[in-house]
């Protein structure tokens, strides 16, 4: 849908800002309520921080949300409801551990009692695809930025860069810091809330995710491992990222966030330099190099005004209150009291807001 085709104005019962996991789950939960729901997304794609790359001859490569556990009951329940499968992350029995730069990497035995992590069969984007089937073309506005939300008495007016939408209720699923830095409100939100949003950590905001695809999983040979933990970096963690059928292979990891200002070619060079210590020259036989620097994603990340701790203010109780006379809700993984910053938090947040909206509309 394009606002230009509607003479630049729409009417809706609910406007959802953001077509990531929270926004799409919320629309899915409200699908049978008889409400007109419009989802507005600044990107040219749905999914938000779920970003799966598909390339022929390679495994599906996750550049965003990837893993979950059995304790993530809201997500697991949704996957079952949608008929989606999952498989355990391959860790192996050992990991390469680099404690300090002055000591050589060591091969250590992983404990048997660690709770397994899982990945969605076919890629995390399968979840987004399943949810997106419940979103009709006249409900979704892609490449549309929300710039302001104004109280117009009996409704809210959502101002975008291509027109306006009048709504009974508005739900923002943006990271709180991104919301307060990009969207103006009239009347303004409480000062204490704005300060809180400004100081709330954005999940994945500092992450640099990379993957190298290969023809053969040479890291599974005796005496080595695809699981890496390093205190010295620049690669801090890495895992075997083969597909479910174990047909296509990759190593996927995280780069120290300090390297966001380095260009892609230089990042690849330093990654290969570190991995060569573990695997030798075979690491240079990669097929493709993929990366996403999430600090460079303007529809996810906004700079903080001061130092922020991981998960700072995630799940704060103020995020569960409606604002603007009860018409504006804040949702998203950062707002969930349990497992904020995870996919489970995103789903739980959507479920909470759906319950509140059902009571009111």
UniProtKB/TrEMBL annotation:
Superkingdom of origin: Bacteria
Gene3D superfamilies: FAD/NAD(P)-binding domain
GO molecular function: oxidoreductase activity
Amine oxidase domain: residues covered: 21-84, 99-357
A Pfam family annotated for this UniProt entry: Amino_oxidase
InterPro entries: Amino_oxidase, FAD/NAD-bd_sf, Flavin_MAO
PANTHER family: AMINE OXIDASE
Family in the record: Belongs to the flavin monoamine oxidase family.
Protein name: FAD-dependent oxidoreductase
Species whose genome carries this gene: Robertkochia marina
